[in-house]
Amino acid sequence: MNRTASDRGRDRDDEGRARSARPRDGLGRPLPYGAEGVPRQPEGVVRTPEETLREAQRLLDAGMPFHAHEVFEDAWKSGPESERDLWQGLAQLAVGLTHAARGNTAGGARLLRRGADRLAGGPGSVEAAAAYGIDAGGLVAWARELADRATEDGEAGEAGEDEGAHAGGGAGSGKGSGAAAAARPVVDAASEAPRLRLDRA
User: Fold this and answer.
1) HSE of 171 in the Cβ direction (CA atoms, 13 Å)?
2) How deeply is 19 buried, as exposed, middle or buried, from its count of CB atoms within 10 A (0-12, 13-18, 19+)?
3) What is the pTM of this model?
């Protein structure tokens, strides 16, 4: 990454495209400059479907769904149009898991459901998934179940937040939006990692 005077401090990659040089954590959240982050996924890598699935599964198992989403994004950008819904749906599942693990339960649930609908909705997705041994039905069920659970957990956190705010939870009591939001359950990305393929235990 480099910066030039004309960029007004914007980070650029070697090809001159804007790309933040800030390190990121395993869930893709930016860290302060100088902090130690996890290596970023290279962009624009053309992989075979087998390589895509293997790398994405490795990243999901490591609790790095944001990085897995980038692998799926490369697949949809470089793959045939007929498989676009498959790879986009898988990317949406990965980024939905990312949001749920960051504590954004509503956004995570929306993306999980959208990805599930994309995987279940088109014949191109179903046919491509079957050709690559992808457990589309299992992924759809996993995503919808996690979305429902995340939404229930988020609503429970919001109910506690409202309760604290209305039950004498004023300033200094430790109750209210800040404490309740911090106490909201988040999803553990590694333990919730889905199995992409039928042949994986």
Assistant:
1) 0
2) middle
3) 0.78
- Give the CA distances from residue 199 to residues 57, 119, 142, in Å, rounded to whole numbers and listed in that order: 12, 19, 16
Distance CA(122)–CA(126), nearest Å, equals 6
Give 174's DSSP letter.
S
Residues 42-68: pLDDT tens digits? 889 999 999 999 999 999 999 999 999
Whether residue 7 is predicted with pLDDT greater than 90 in this model: the reply is no
The answer for residues whose C-beta is within 8 angstroms of residue 154's C-beta and 6 or more apart is: 105, 106, 109, 184
Closest CA to 71 of 88, 52, 86: 52
User: Tokens 């229930």 map to which residue?
Assistant: 152
Three-state DSSP state, 189: coil
- Can you give the pLDDT at residue 154? 56
Residue 71, beta-bridge partner list: none
